[in-house]
Every structure is written in structure tokens, then in C-alpha cells.
Fold this protein.
Amino acid sequence: MTSVIGKSVKRTDTLGKVTGGAVYAGDVVLPGLLHGKTKRSTVAHARIKAIDTTKALALPGVKAILTHGDVPRVLHYGSPHPRSASVTQDQYILDTKVRYFGEGVAAVAATSEEIAELACELIEVEYEPLPAVFTVEDALKPGAPAIHDVGPGGNLVLDPFVVTRGDVEKGFAEADLIVEGEYGMGRPTPAYMEPNVCVCQWDPLGKLTIWTSTQSPFMVRGTLAEVLGLPLNKVRVLVDHMGGGFGAKQDLFQHEFLCALLAQRTRRPVRMEFTRKETFLGGRTRHPGTVWIRQGFKRDGTITAREAKVVFNSGAYGSHGPGVTAVGTAALTSLYRCENVRLEGRCVYTNTPIAGAFRGYGVVQTYYALDILMDEAAETLGMDPAALKLKNAVREGDVAPSNHPLTGHGLEDCIRRGMDETGWASRSSKPKAGRLRRGWGMGCEMHGSSAYPGIKEQGNAVVRMNEDGSVTLLTGTTGLGTGAHTALAQITAEELGVTFEDVAVVHGDTDVVPWDIGAFASHTTFMAGRACQMAAAQVKAKVLARAADRLEVSAADLEIRDSVITVKGVPGMSLTVREAIAAEKGIPAPQLLGEGSYHPTKSYSFGAHFVEVEVDTETGQVSVLQVVPVHEIGKVIHPIAAAGQIEGGIQQGIGHTLSEDFVVDHRDGRPLNASFVDYKMPLAMDMPPIRTIILETAPSDGGPFGAKGVGEDPIIAIGPAIANAIHDAIGVRFRHYPITPEQILAALEEKAGAQAA
Amino acid sequence: MTTTVPVTITINGEPRDLAVAPHRTLLDVLRNEAGLTGTKKGCDVGDCGACTVLLDDVPVNSCLVLAVEAAGRNVTTIEGIAPAPDRLHLLQENFMALGASQCGFCTPGIIVMAKALLDQNPDPTEEEIRFGLAGNICRCTGYTKIIEAIQVTARQMAAAGGETA
Ligand code: FES
Ligand code: FES
């Protein structure tokens, strides 16, 4: 029986959040602080002929201006997972070219934000316009303007990513029915609440300290050091709290380099904070794209072959394009069992905002297509869609996208449980007439905990027991808001046999904590958690050895629970942890240090979402009435935090499917809705009740106490579930997102026309 | 370069003498002049509610209020919500216990808004709570646990006879 994990202990990180005391990067105040601003391009593709900063420099209060001639010219990785296959090396801090509307071309440091903004306006940039391409189709045309000199050419971010399994021709030859479709995806953005922000300061010895809102502080350290030519011990990255990132804050942004260089130039600390508009323009979005799929089926619903072509729009830089393309494409090997598979993924540069990492990392797009296609097939086969998905659900022993065998029957468990919970079999099938029409839909997903094999990851932890028996956990993981640090403290306490309150977490300072790859890929609890468990086990062994001495018994006969050490089978013989390790007779307490390093492979979490929608046939408005998400995530460490991830993912997924789309004008590449008013997200009035169900039926050997990841899963299945529910309600099949009211009305009109004819 | 105007604003019960430029927002002055960084800036144009404070007990987006407009008035920020330094407001307790705060960037604004809501309407329906939070963006939680924390607080306040903490 466990005593700390599996319980929703009070999250320690939220005390500062509810009182206003939590320090985010933008809250850091330093004496002499200057304010930095980025001058952004007003064209989508151009060579910079000249930049005149004279007027701007003459403005009182302006302390420094940087243009491409003033900064190191080092080709660097857009996202700081250097030398992994997931990211591209195609960026300069400031280039002599701009490749999208809103790209930084200069930076100013001034005594106030207003002056810095004014100075940006006074900088005169002379552009020599280059032909620009805003769509994948145009970028792939022969003779299309090349956006980059690097890469395989033809505006490809990477060579086509191909996966084959079995014999696709044979599979299609055996099919009784072939279903195919092309599905299109808009451009949702993470729209985290905290705009990107950093503060930089140099010390007299030439050491840079940067407070920044990042998910991967050690990656920021590594890339800054590489580009600025510094050893790693001269770059210190600090991040205590951050206001969301959802994947996008894995990238290293232009302003982080520029802020460091402005601080160096002025010898004063500098803060650079994005406006909300800049957070849209200079942020990272999900990859828009198309997914074409063809599947062969037997009459009984068995899938015989699957072929797919995935094309993602990377925007102006590669960022996570290779990783997103590989993960999204490879995901199509799985979810629904199929032995004969041929998949191809491509990712294409265009002169549009940069697409990067975003919760669900390519899988959101490809499973949207696959799951809707399954519903279409069910209709043709005359089968219930949930039954068809259940029949084909991947299970124990099947080969996962990562090429590992899957453990357990998580997906089947989720589908069955959701069908039970919603009374799926007897759900209303009454005629869908009248103004308000209701429908049910369901969708499925699976997602890996950790980025292996794309990145060979490593989770680290250092656990120290102090001489009073209290415990300090040092972790390099970031506090993205998920509650991961609480989960890590729970895991440490559980393994060590102390209480949750005994464990204090130290994080957020690259000079102090063990190296960490960053908070992404649903891996923090899974991977760093396992490292905590390993480190705690070492400390526990040392404590028990010491107690065994004192009690004159064998350490093997001892156990610790709630910080009390007892001898198995000998009631009354006990010692507190504190007593066991205390100093005595002038001899200090021992050094009790444990260190865990864990190299994970891969585990998969599963989910099935069941959704009821109501379509207003007069306005085209779709309301999500209720969602029943069922997730199988192995051992749950903190139930409330896990449920919170699921509910938040559903909110973003509803947005993706029904309203969110960051749109670029195809004439000049200018973004059209870079504000919260114009970029529509589901808010308090739009969110339905969510009845979250979490299953623990397929625990992972690789995770701490069997835990798996949950961060990304919930954003995936909600999309196809909604699209399928809309079809159930009004009989119209949409093969794209977002599905807007205008499109619903147009489709209903077309349908009515067709019926009348 | 800009001239400043002396103003006295009572912030969380304490009169503060501040010199503010006439164009500066209350949000900027709270964060930069008064040193109260609990109030967050999510958009600076009135679209997100992260900067919500009470101005004479009425919730406002402090990014849309000029600091000079707050002269002689009472401002309550997230730092002034707790009834005593060693005690949290019930809303704060419940936001923690029920997981209503994830990244926490929306939390100060939402708690301030929820306090105003409950002060006005101690027994709100779920619909009324959702309506009350219509201007507060949270991107992490799906609002499920936020609504729950406010409902639980309302019930506890009723049970305690209207006491808020
Ligand atoms: S910062 Fe004031 S409403 Fe967004
Ligand atoms: S908790 Fe992150 S925005 Fe609400």
C-alpha cells in the first residue's frame, strides 16, 4: 500500500499563485533595469538593404540598438535540442533577410518601455522585397523562391520521412472496402497566458544570468553559451514559475539572445517582454497541414492496409518541424491495428509564422484524420463507430510507433468504460430535426511518455536528507504549471518512507540543480519521477544501514513509513529517521546523498473521449454539451493534477476544433487576428461540464510506481470526437478544423439543396 | 522626460503616495511603482482579465484604468485578499486544494473577480459564475476546477454565516 502517491496532496507551488507572491520572470526587478523591444519586420520575405538607426539613437533614453551587424552570426538551432533529429539548425540571431511578417530585425534598450517602442518606430529599414510563398502548394511548386539555403532544398525542412511495415499492396488487395479522405488543419496557437519575457544581467566577471519563461532552461543555457561563445558555467538560467508554455516555450526565441546582448552592451540589466500581439507574431503555432489517408477494411471491420501522406506547413523556420513530422507520421502506424502500413511525412517552409512544438506534437493532426476516417468507414460498413474502433484498438504486444511492444489493454479499457459511462449503445438516435440538433461522437488517442527514440532522453535527480530528517529534492525540471514538482516530491517521499511535507523541492537554477532536458513530451513525472525514485532509494539504503547499526539488526529487516523506522515483525522496536541519522557525541550526522539518472525508453498512455454536441442550424453555432474523457495513464501520482491536465487539454482541443485559427493574409503574409479578441478561444461560458475518468489498468514498468504521462494526451481525441458528433447531429461530414459556424450553415444549405433536387 | 503627477492611492488599505505619469495605467503603476507584481499583464488591452483588481470594490481591468483615475480611491489587489497575514481567504484555500490554479498566471485576476462576485451574490448558480468569469481567460484548466472552487467557497461561506475566511 502506498501512503503518499495516489493522493491529491496540497500542491506547494500554488501558494504563491493564489497570494500573488509567486515570482515569474516578468516580475523580476533589478536596479538600473532597462527595457528592451524588438523591431519587427513589416514584410514577409525580403533582403535587408539598409537599416538606419540614427533617429532612434538620438532619442533621449535610448541606450543601445542592435542590428544584424552588431550580433554574432552563428547558425543555430531554432529549438534548443541541439544535435537531435527533432529540430533544425536554420536561424541567426538577426539575419540579413527576413522570412516572415513580424520577424525581429533590430532591438532597442531604453530607460522605459515607451521610449523603446518609440525608438523601434524611428528605426528605418529598407527592404528589397523577395517573392514570398504562404501556402505549402506554392512553396512546393518548381521554381518557387527558396526560403532557406540550408536543408534538403525545394523548401523542404527535412527529407521525406517514410515508415513502412508489412506489404501495403497485398493489404489493399485483401480489402473488401477501401475508404480514403484528405483532412485539413488550421493553425491553432498555444496562447499561453504569460507573454514571453526574459531579464538579463551580466556580472563583472562576464557571467550572464537570465530569468526567462522557458520550459527547458538547460537547453537555453546550452544554446546561449554556444552562440555567444561562453562556457556553460558562465550562463545561469533561472525560472521559478512560468505562465504556461504548452510546448512552444521549448524554443529559444530571438529576444532571449537580443536581451542578453543588450545587457552586455549597456552593462545594465535589461527586460524584454512580449506584448500579446508579439506573442502571436513571434510565438510558435501548431503545424497547419493536410493528412491524406487510405485504409482497406474487411467486411467484419478488420483493417488490412493503411497508406498516408502527411504534409505540414513549418512556417518560416524549421523549429520542431522534423520532430513533429516524424512523431505525427509514425503515430499512424498505431492506435488502430494494421500490419501493412506505408506512411510519408513532409514538412515545408513558407513565409508564415513559425510552427513549433505544441502539446500533441503532430499527433493531434494525424489522429484527427485517422479517427474521422474510422467513423466514415463504420458508416459504410454499417457498424457502430465505437465498436469498430474497439475491434481494431491496439493492445498488449502490438508494435508501437516507437517500435516497442505495447503493454496492456489501455485503449480497449478506455473505449469500453466510456461506452458504459455514456450508455453509448442506447444513446439517442431520434430523428435529428428542428433547429437545435444533438449528436454524440467519440475519438481515441495514444501518446508516448518521453520523446524517445527521437531524442535519447535522461531524467536526473539529487535527493539529500538533512541532519534533522527533512529532505531536499533537487530537480532540473521546470514548473510549467502542471504540478510536476509536487508529483516528484510525492514520489521521493513515497520511496523514502517520509511524509510529503518532509520533502522540499529546489528547482529553477541551472547553477544548482541537476541537468534536465526540459518539461515536454509528457515525460516529467515519468522520467524525472523515476530518477527521483532511484535517488531516494539510495538515501533510504543509507538511512537504513545507519538505523540497523543503532538497533543492532539487519537493514533488510527494517522498513520506513511516515519517517518512522520499524523492525519487521518486532512491534515496539522503532526509531524515527531523525534519531537514526542524528549527530552524536560530537560526530556530525552523515552525508546522505542520492543521485538518480534514468534513461527511459517509451511508454504509451491511452484515451477515448465521448462528446455530446448541439448544433444550432440557424446560426451554425456548435455547443459542446458534455465531455466524458476516459484516460489510462498507469499509476496516478496526484489525481487532481492529472484531472486538471485532462480538463485543460480538452479546452484547447475544443478551441482547435471549433474556432481557433491564426490566419495569415495570403496576399502579403500579414497575420490577421493577432489578439485575444480576434483569435477565439473557448472561455468560461463556452466550456461544458467534463466528467473525467482515469484508469490505471496498464501501468508502465518504465515509470515510477507504474506511472505514465498525461500532459499531451487530452488534447488529441477531443477533436475527432467533436467532428464525429457534429456528423451524428446534422449528417454532415467535416474533414478539417476549425469547423466554423459559416461552414456549418453552408453545408446545411448544400445538403438541403441536394435533398430538394 | 514625461512629467509626473503626485497621487495618493489606497492600495490594500494602505495609502500610498506615488508620482505617476498621466498616461500610465494602474496595472503598470501597481507592478512597477507599488511593487505589487501579483497582478498580471496578459494582454494590456482589456481582453484577458489577468490584471483584474477591485477599484472601490468594483472589479476592473487595471490595464484599462489610468493610475491618475485611481487617485483618492481604494484599490484591492490579490495581495490584499487574505484577511490576515497568516490566513488565506477561503477562495485562496479552495483554489489550492481543488487544483483551480495550474500555471497560475490567470489566478490572481480570477480570485479577485470571484471575490467580487461572491460579495455581490453569495449564492451564485454555475451559470452566474461562468458569466461572472466571462472576461477572465484561463488557458490551463478548462475552468472545471475554478468553478468548483468558487462553488465550494460559496457553500462554506454560507455555512459560516457569510464569513469569508
Ligand atoms: S492585462 Fe488587462 S485585461 Fe489583459
Ligand atoms: S492556470 Fe494557467 S492560465 Fe489559468
Observations:
- The radius of gyration of chain A is 27 Å.
